Amino acid sequence: MDSIKQSVTRSVIGLAIFAVITAGLIAATQIMTKGTIEKQIKKAQSKALLQIISQEEHNNDLLEDTVTLEEGGLLNLPSSKDGYIARLDNQPVAVILPVVAENGYSGPISMIVGIESNGSVKGVRVIAHKETPGLGDKIDIKKSDWIKQFEGASLTQPMTEQWKVKKDGGEFDQLTGATITPRAVVSGVHDALSFFNQNKDKLLSTQPSQQMSAEGDSNGH
């Protein structure tokens, strides 16, 4: 009887040790995996930002020099997001803002819009969308150069009434076989410019990690 108890005890202890070791290995793997994923995300973010403003045009760390933008407002953010401040020798030269155009053909279109300190568009990149392959997906820089037509545009060039696709009497090209998608992007870029115009002084004087509402009220701390 004692031998049976001893055998059971050894089995229980063995299982307990195995469980502890397994849990430790899983936890260690999760920690290492999390670090790898975070590095990959940071690398992807940096790559997207550098498509808008080159390394030669700024000398700060964009991923560290941020302003927290609260959800909603002109930028139509579903949750708080980071805006990025590009500086050259500590002087702000551009702001990169996230914006969501809700009225895409197949759903929301997430973008980042780079705006120079003079209020002109530095560049636009689509970050996420579900637009139709071969048609609306040409808003993606990997599919076509369509998105580059916004570079140099501002709230006054063209004037607000011209911030439409040509089919609607505006300045911007639509895509062959797709009009709804370009309309949404044009509107989203204009919203980002409007947000910048309303909050220019705050954005350009922002210190890293300051917080702003998407309507522009500063909650810095």
TrEMBL record:
InterPro entries per the UniProt record, alphabetical: FMN-bd, Ion_transpt_RnfG/RsxG
Cofactor(s), by name: FMN
Enzyme class of the recorded protein, top EC level: translocase
An example molecular function term from Gene Ontology annotations: FMN binding
Record keywords, A-Z: Cell inner membrane, Cell membrane, Electron transport, Flavoprotein, FMN, Membrane, Phosphoprotein, Translocase, Transmembrane, Transmembrane helix, Transport
Modification FMN phosphoryl threonine, positions: 179
EC number, as in UniProt: 7.-.-.-
UniProt GO BP: electron transport chain
Residue intervals passing through the bilayer: 12-32
GO CC aspect terms: plasma membrane
Domain of life of the organism encoding this protein: Bacteria
Membrane topology: Single-pass membrane protein
Ranges where the FMN-binding domain occurs: 104-196
Main location: membrane
Pfam families, per the entry: FMN_bind
Localisation per UniProt entry: Cell inner membrane
Subunit structure: The complex is composed of six subunits: RnfA, RnfB, RnfC, RnfD, RnfE and RnfG.
Entries under HAMAP family matching the protein: RsxG_RnfG (MF_00479)
Family affiliation: Belongs to the RnfG family.
Record's function text: Part of a membrane-bound complex that couples electron transfer with translocation of ions across the membrane.
Protein name in UniProt: Ion-translocating oxidoreductase complex subunit G
UniProt source species: Alkalimarinus sediminis
Upper lineage: Bacteria, Pseudomonadati, Pseudomonadota, Gammaproteobacteria, Alteromonadales
